[in-house]
Amino acid sequence: MEESLMRIKQLNLDCYGCRGPLDDGEELTSVMENAAASVGATVIGKSVQAYPEYGLTAVVFLAESHILVSTYPEFKYYVVEIFMCNPGQDPASCGNYVLGYLKPDASKSTEFFHEIGASPQRSRSVLSRLAGSIEPLIRNIVGNKEQCSSCGSSDLSREFINAGPLPPICLGVFLRNAPSPSRWHYTCQDCNSDWYR
Question: Which domains does the chain have, with CATH numbers?
Fold first, then answer.
């Protein structure tokens, strides 16, 4: 039986050297609502949480998912997260609208797809394909040094395994040196030995 999947596109924007207002939640949510309208999304709610020292997180809830912006005025930095489950709506266009308000000196965008309704096995295979697509770049940088400890062969297959949740994040502070729950599963194509790294 084939699984029914819903793919939600997530766009993350890291915005550096922002010149737009960094502490005006009302103006920011207005811009986010206009950005949503610009791609045909339906706003169903909004919320702003200001933090005691500085910064805020603003969320505009959409019938199609959400737009979230967290500000870090002390670094002139914003992070923008846009989820849209309607394939006819373009998160990048929505993001460009928000960028026009934030006025960053530089920005970096990262796009993800979340497969809702996928089995864990299917999700792992999607992660493996994603990780495999960057593998040639990594090999060019660091070289392929992996070899089978049993037979010495470098003819290996590998699969990316996501073994658990990401390390906790609290108010934008990442816990350093937290153990990574993700790892690679290697299989030697010559002798069928397998191991994790």
Answer: 6-115 (3.60.90.10), 119-196 (no CATH)
